[in-house]
Design brief:
The structure holds 2 protein chains of 2 kinds. Chain A is mainly beta. Chain A contains no helices and 11 strands. In chain A, the strands form 2 sheets. In chain A, strands 2, 4, 5, 6, 9, 10 and 11 form a 7-stranded mixed β-sheet that branches. Chain A has a 4-stranded antiparallel β-sheet with strand order 1-3-8-7, with no helix packed on it. The termini of chain A are far apart. Chain B is mostly beta strands. Classes of the chains: A mainly beta, B mainly beta. The interface between A and B is medium-sized, with 26 and 23 residues.
Chain lengths: 113, 115
C-alpha cells in the first residue's frame, strides 16, 4: 500500500504564475488535509476535504488559493498569481473515517522567484 | 479552540543523555495527541500518539510520552539520545470532531545531539 504521494517534490514558479500541487491519498482514505510550513515554522492547517466536498477551509487565505478533491484523481491545491511569500513546503495528509491517525506525504517545496 | 505550546525552540543534549521535549496543550474536548519527527527536507513521521486508554504511550525509536490531563501536558522523552535523533519534533492535537484529523501543531523543537 503506497503512502501519501505528493508531486512535484519541488516546484519553482515566477511571481504571477500559477502553482498546482497534487496529492494522492493512501488507498481507501477519503479524508485529505493540506498544511503549509513556512521556513523555520511549524505546520499550519489550510483545508480539509472529503471527496467532492470542502469540509473546513478555515486556514486558507481568502484570495488566490483554492483546493479540490474530485471524485476521481488526486487532490489539487492551486495557488494563482504566486508571490514570494507563498514560498513554503506544502504537506498533504490523509486519513480514514475509522482510523486513528493521519498519514503525511513528503511535501512539495514551492519556491517563488 | 485547541492550541499547542512547545517550550524551547532548540534543545541540545549529549549523546547518551536523557531527551525531554515539552508539550502543553489546550483543548475544550478530550484530545488526541501526537508527536511527529521531521528530518531535513523530509515529511513528517509519526513517533507516537495518545487517543484513549493507557496514558503512557510508547513509540518508535525508543521514544515515549505521558498524557497528563491535570497538567495538560504530553512531554516526549527518550532515556538515551542517539546522534540519529537530531531532527525537528512537532507536538500536535486534534479534537477529533466529525471523524476529522485536522491537526493543530506546535511551533516545533529542534533537537541537537552533541557527540
Amino acid at each position: 500500500n503506497a503512502g501519501v504521494m505528493q508531486n512535484p517534490r519541488h516546484l519553482v514558479r515566477r511571481r504571477g504564475q500559477e502553482a498546482r500541487l497534487r496529492c494522492s491519498p493512501m488507498k481507501g482514505h477519503s479524508h485529505v488535509y493540506w498544511y503549509r510550513q513556512l521556513p523555520e515554522e511549524g505546520l499550519k492547517f489550510m483545508v480539509y476535504l472529503q471527496k467532492e466536498n470542502i469540509i473546513d477551509e478555515s486556514g486558507m487565505p481568502k484570495e488566490r488559493f483554492s483546493a479540490e478533491f474530485p471524485k476521481e484523481g488526486p487532490s489539487i491545491l492551486r495557488i494563482q498569481q504566486v508571490v514570494r511569500g507563498d514560498s513554503a513546503a506544502y504537506f498533504c495528509a490523509s486519513s480514514t473515517t475509522e482510523g486513528t491517525e493521519a498519514f503525511f506525504g513528503q511535501g512539495t517545496r514551492l519556491t517563488v522567484v | 479552540a485547541q492550541s499547542v505550546t512547545q517550550l524551547g525552540s532548540h534543545v541540545s543534549v549529549s549523546e547518551g543523555a536523557l531527551v525531554l521535549l515539552r508539550c502543553n496543550y489546550s483543548s475544550s474536548v478530550p484530545p488526541y495527541l501526537f508527536w511527529y519527527v521531521q528530518y531535513p527536507n523530509q515529511g513528517l513521521q509519526l513517533l507516537l500518539k495518545y487517543t484513549t486508554g493507557a496514558t503512557l504511550v510508547k513509540g518508535i525509536n525508543g521514544f515515549e510520552a505521558e498524557f497528563k490531563k491535570s497538567e495538560t501536558s504530553f512531554h516526549l522523552t527518550k532515556p538515551s539520545a542517539h546522534m540519529s535523533d537530531a531532527a525537528e519534533y512537532f507536538c500536535a492535537v486534534t479534537p477529533r470532531v466529525d471523524s476529522s484529523y485536522k491537526l493543530i501543531f506546535g511551533s516545533g523543537t529542534r533537537l541537537l545531539v552533541r557527540p
